[in-house]
Amino acid sequence: xxxxxxxxxxxxxxxxxxxxxxxxxxxxxxxxxxxxxxxxxxxxxxxxxxxxxxxxxxxxxxxxxxxxxxxxxxxxxxxxxxxxxxxxxxxxxxxxxxxxxxxxxxxxxxxxxxxxxxxxxxxxxxxxxxxxxxxxxxxxxxxxxxxxxxxxxxxxxxxxxxxxxxxxxxxxxxxxxxxxxxxxxxxxxxxxxxxxxxxxxxxxxxxxxxxxxxxxxxxxxxxxxxxxxxxxxxxxxxxxxxxxxxxxxxxxxxxxxxxxxxxxxxxxxxxxxxxxxxxxxxxxxxxxxxxxxxxxxxxxxxxxxxxxxxxxxxxxxxxxxxxxxxxxxxxxxxxxxxxxxxxxxxxxxxxxxxxxxxxxxxxxxxxxxxxxxxxxxxxxxxxxxxxxxxxxxxxxxxxxxxxxxxxxxxxxxxxxxxxxxxxxxxxxxxxxxxxxxxxxxxxxxxxxxxxxxxxxxxxxxxxxxxxxxxxxxxxxxxxx
Length: 480
What we know:
The longest helix is centred in the middle third of the chain and has 19 residues, at 168-186. Helix 3 (64-72) runs parallel beside helix 6, helix 6 runs parallel beside helix 7 and helix 10 crosses helix 11. The radius of gyration is 26 Å and the shape is globular. 24% of the residues are buried. It has a 7-stranded mixed sheet with strand order 3-19-18-4-5-9-6, sandwiched between helices. Strands 11-12-16-15 form a 4-stranded antiparallel sheet. 28% of the residues lie in helices and 18% in strands. By secondary structure, it is an alpha+beta fold.
């Protein structure tokens, strides 16, 4: 293991700003002059798509500009291997990283950009006292004491961010925004993000994710029953559910799996043999109008040689579900069923000639996922009955999300020769890693996990001086 200096490239995360300028230069070289962006030229190139209004729809808060800049500022840290604290160091491909996740996410950009299939995070809920992320890496000991809620930047006891404070939402948004910006870069084209959240910040989280991922890449809000029985009420109503917000890197990449169903019988026959009616090839629902996807509006040869277009039930011009080459091939092979409406237009169905099992979409209501109490029980069982973590998510919830995010019948290596990578940068008790290993055993797979977590106080009786002394010993620095 060679020593690293500040000059080594390994000690620096990618310069995201420089990469963005290079990408812009490749598209619009005339807008870059001496390494700087000429915004006037760029506005001219983009024409009417530039929005110069002062009042715009979106989410704004104090500190947003700095939060965006935090995501763009390169890190000068590095990840230090700890083989002496590891299990099966020479063979494992799983990672547990201890450190501030903003710093770690920057460092992961170099090796894992565009490689992560699933990101699941259970960030601190905005109760006003559960998150302290100052994003200051200048002094390890001081930063650690701040992160664990012991002191503020002036060495005073931390005052909590209460709901009566005007910064109640602001502090949480400033903590989440740069981390989500960096997380998106790590996802593959078919990558999926799952975020556990409650009602306090779900509205702001959705708008923030619309900005980071694009509203077209919003999939849904999953709902699960987090608890049963009693609880404190608000206005006479007890909330017993929480949410898992789901976004993807590219909705066109069909990032989710389907629920595997038993095969249906082939109950019809044509000149090619038995078949059953499969899915409609006319696209319905969101983004199904011709104007939404103009390339998916085209004619196919129908009965009697007439041109058939994807016309919706409301008689509007719609879209086909398949691309032109694939659909025309199916029609030519006699694998499309045309059903005429009363107005003379057609609905087209796929003819399924195989009796193999098929899939159906998932539902937004997550069932049989356990409650928060099951997560606590699972951790207690691992630690001989001791309650060492509070409010852990049940492994069954995360296992359900893994099944949703990983495609069916994909037990071979992916295109890059690696199994799927699952990232959790608010790892907490490590339930995501637990769930990945459990699913690997159940499905005979070798998916990998990367967990990131802040250093945590494990002994509540430790004094600040004892903690500082132990960390100084590890860092090889005098305890001041």
